[in-house]
Inverse folding.
């Protein structure tokens, strides 16, 4: 284990050093190309004296490189990645880095040739991809360990393709028979490719939790067992495995999906490890900016609400309550107190209801206009919540829903939000199953545009005091 850790640290060191060198080289080449060449949209070459800008900014450009790559998980693992995946994450990191540099130069009122910045981004992305792919070839990287679910011809075919084509970076750790089906002993060739047989899903879950297995490939007939299996192994940890499906004709007809290929076999990515990384840095900046602006704008409302709570009932102004957040991690939300002191001392956790007798004299008004939720802006600034996401539930209710609602664990793949798709579309007393449909639809389609749409609709609902 220590030896593996030393190898990983050595890989990160060389990746870090090379990334710094690529940033410097890309910026230098961008200036040199502009000095000797006229690019489309430019009237002339860049004067030689403009090289002074290189001396002014190269330190910041080089320093920003590893930060952007770290944000997008490019220092997290030295496991072998497909080249297209490297190109995708590097491109996103360079785009993020270039936007940040542009914003910094603008805020500092620093003149800088825009054509050089564009050229730098293109060169940086291209050189980084070449460097990272080359590093992956030079440094021995561990194969991603795969477990196949299924034991028929389809699973054996996938296993053989993985064994024959090592450049995919996959290695079959074993297979798990499809739950509820009889599984004949594979022939010698299939057995060699499939590896050892796992006893049950619990053993697979332990291998995933320990990090001994990275990916799961569903290579058998579709059925209800798939939902139960994913529920058991995929939704309860920060680091989620990749779940892939060998599609039949029906699944292949479904559009807008991402595929991987093992030689001539297409695999649908049902769930992906780290998809949230691409959006999380920008979403986090969006949350910080939005929560700060809302907190400043609502400062007078904070004072008025605090005075109303203090003057109309005994007890603290603010109320902290345990909720369950991303990856089932508990945290404490902050709210203005709307109930009498010790309202649940005898009843325990009870869902809120209309005309709740536990409410204070101003509690109903605060809840109707969602003013009691305003202090949760602090939870957003602290990184425990997002402006938009599945609403965080209390631990007791979460345990109940996990036990009886299939797929409920998947809602914890995203940070909880002040508001969400279920809150702007569903009813306040909608069932957990229905709210889950909205939460999963949001997770699968989340974007800044969707977040903005949900926030605008939330404002309308609050102003009209709709009971959502």
């Amino acid at each position: 284990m220590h030896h593996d850790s030393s190898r990983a640290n050595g890989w990160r060191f060389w990746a870090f050093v090379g990334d710094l060198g690529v940033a410097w080289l890309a910026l230098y080449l961008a200036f040199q190309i502009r000095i000797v060449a006229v690019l489309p949209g430019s009237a002339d070459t860049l004067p030689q004296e403009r090289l002074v800008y290189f001396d002014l900014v190269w330190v910041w450009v080089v320093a920003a490189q590893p930060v952007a790559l770290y944000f997008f998980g490019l220092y997290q693992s030295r496991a072998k990645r497909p080249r297209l995946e490297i190109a995708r994450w590097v491109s996103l990191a360079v785009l993020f880095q270039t936007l940040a540099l542009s914003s910094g130069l603008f805020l500092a009122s620093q003149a800088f040739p825009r054509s050089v910045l564009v050229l730098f981004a293109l060169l940086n992305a291209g050189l980084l991809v070449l460097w990272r792919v080359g590093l992956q070839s030079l440094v021995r990287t561990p194969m991603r360990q795969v477990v196949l679910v299924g034991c028929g011809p389809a699973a054996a075919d996938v296993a053989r393709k993985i064994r024959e084509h090592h450049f995919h970076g996959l290695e079959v750790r074993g297979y798990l028979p499809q739950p509820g089906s009889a599984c004949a002993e594979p022939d010698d060739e299939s057995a060699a490719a499939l590896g050892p047989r796992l006893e049950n899903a619990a053993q697979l879950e332990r291998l995933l939790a320990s990090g001994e297995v990275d990916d799961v490939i569903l290579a058998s007939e579709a059925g209800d067992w798939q939902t139960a299996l994913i529920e058991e192994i995929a939704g309860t940890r920060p680091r989620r495995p990749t779940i892939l499906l060998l599609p039949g004709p029906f699944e292949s007809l479904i559009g807008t999906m991402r595929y991987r290929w093992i030689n001539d076999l297409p695999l649908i990515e049902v769930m992906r490890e780290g998809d949230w990384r691409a959006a999380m840095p920008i979403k986090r900046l969006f949350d910080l900016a939005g929560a700060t602006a809302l907190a400043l704008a609502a400062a007078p409302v904070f004072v008025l609400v605090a005075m109303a709570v203090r003057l109309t009932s005994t007890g603290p102004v603010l109320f902290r309550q345990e909720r369950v957040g991303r990856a089932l991690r508990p945290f404490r939300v902050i709210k203005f107190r709307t109930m009498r002191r010790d309202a649940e001392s005898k009843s325990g956790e009870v869902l809120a209801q209309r005309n709740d007798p536990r409410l204070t004299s101003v509690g109903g008004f605060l809840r109707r206009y969602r003013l009691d939720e305003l202090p949760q802006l602090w939870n957003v600034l602290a990184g425990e919540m997002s402006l938009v996401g599945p609403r965080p539930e209390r631990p007791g209710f979460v345990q109940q829903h996990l036990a009886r609602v299939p797929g409920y664990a998947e809602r914890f793949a995203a940070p909880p939000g002040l508001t969400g798709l279920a809150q702007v579309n569903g009813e306040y007393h909608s069932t957990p199953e229905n709210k889950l449909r909205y939460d999963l639809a949001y997770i699968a389609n989340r974007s800044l545009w969707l977040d903005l749409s949900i926030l605008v609709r939330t404002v309308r609902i609050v102003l009209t005091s709709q009971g959502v």
The chain has a mean pLDDT of 80.
